[in-house]
Amino acid sequence: MRKILIIILLIGIPVIFVAIYLYTKPVKDLTHASPDYVLEASVLYEEFAQNEAAANKKYVNKILEVSGMLAGKQTNNNGSTSLFLLDDLMGINCSLDSAYSTLEKEAVKSLKTGEKIIIKGKCNGMLTDVQLSSCILVKPETRK
Amino acid sequence: MKTIISLIIIFTFFNLILPAQERYFTKSGTISFYSHAPLEDIRAENNQVTSILDIKTGDMVFAVLIRSFTFKKALMQEHFNENYMESDKFPKAKFKGNIVDISEIDLDKPGTYQVKIQGMLTIRDKTKNIELEGELQKLEKDQISGKAKFNIDIADYGIVIPAVVKDKIAKSIEISCNLLYDPYKK
């Protein structure tokens, strides 16, 4: 009887810990994540524009490192910032990770329209533009 | 000759003072939802809402990508996309509506206005007519801030909740919108 109880405890306790870990696991912070694809903003946009279904299959939920020209930025009412690559309307819409943009406030502020930047983020698909979320800026020195 | 010159002057004058700006636009609006559940509150936010607002006709359009809703917990986000919203099958949601009482307000003047909105909300390819109240604020800097809060019943949009967790998930969800529009130049 005692043996059975010990076995149950031995199996049960790790299972509970794993369950709690899985349940409370936060959404991934991309700072140290290695990208699934490294590509130009124009290439990414064209792939979505030409065949959205195929591009969805290839890129959705994947981590992309995209380089392109900054066409504009917007900060909304709750302080969240989006950077637009290629074009204000039809380009790549990158929503910055909120923890990252608080930490790197000055770096984000100093970005200028027309500047070439590199962004890492999770691809969510296409609306009028291709959307990336949880984005961070990739600086040359942090690039792998 | 004199009349022609004065006509030209009048025309240029009107062109200068008449605000050509009727449409406002954003691609970084926020829509969040909240539902109270016994185990834990469910909350998610999307900061990539695209919306156009026409301040003369009162027409408004909103579009969102379902996958751009972010949660605090990874597992919750996965369940939301895979089990409830089926984001692969239904990647987008949209609202197409109108400010019913647009003729009573003047959004060229800075100030805060309460408005009634009516329109069609499409989620998971199911479209329902909804009515809500919102607040528009014309800022000194040529921008418009829009806010609204309303509830939807998830059953209206064909979202199926497994029997096991049926009592743990609220049947009505509160949706909040918070957008900052810039003039649409193009």
Kindly name the structural category of chain A. Answer: alpha/beta
- Overall structural class of chain B, as computed from helix and strand content, comes to mainly beta
C-alpha geometry of chain B: elongated
Number of domains as seen in the coordinates of chain A: 1
What is the CATH topology classification name of chain A?
Answer: OB fold (Dihydrolipoamide Acetyltransferase, E2P)
Counting DSSP H or I runs of 4 or more residues, the number of helices of chain B is 2
CATH topology of chain B: Lipocalin
The separation of the N and C termini of chain B measures 36 Å
User: Whole-number radius of gyration of chain B?
Assistant: 21 Å
- Strand order within the widest beta sheet of chain B: 1-2-3-4-5-6-7-8
- Approximately how much helix is present in the residues of chain A? 25-40%
CATH A-level architecture of chain A: Beta Barrel
Order of helices and strands of chain B: HEEEHEEEEE
CATH level-1 class of chain A: Mainly Beta
Question: How far do the termini of chain A sit from each other?
Answer: 56 Å
CATH class of chain B: Mainly Beta
Give the strand order, joined by hyphens, for the main sheet of chain A.
2-3-4-6-5
Provide the low-confidence segments of chain B as ranges.
Answer: none
Supply the CATH superfamily name of chain A.
Nucleic acid-binding proteins
Backbone shape of chain A: elongated
Q: What is the CATH-assigned architecture of chain B?
A: Beta Barrel
Give an overview of the whole structure.
- The complex is a heterodimer of chains A (144) and B (186).
- Chain A has 144 residues and is of the alpha/beta class.
- Chain A has helices spanning 2-24, 41-50, 52-59, 98-103, 105-109, and strands at 37-40, 63-75, 81-85, 92-96, 116-126, 130-137.
- Chain A has a single domain (37-142), classed as Nucleic acid-binding proteins (OB fold (Dihydrolipoamide Acetyltransferase, E2P)).
- A five-stranded mixed beta barrel of chain A has the order 2-3-4-6-5.
- Chain A starts with a helix and ends in a 7-residue tail after the last strand.
- Chain B has an eight-stranded antiparallel β-barrel.
- Chain B is elongated and about 85 Å long.
- The A-B interface holds A 22-28, 56, 60-61, 74-78, 80-82, 84, 88-89, 93, 95, 124-129, 131, 133-134 and B 26-30, 47-48, 50, 63-65, 67-68, 70-75, 77, 88, 91-92, 145, 147, 178-180, 182, 186.
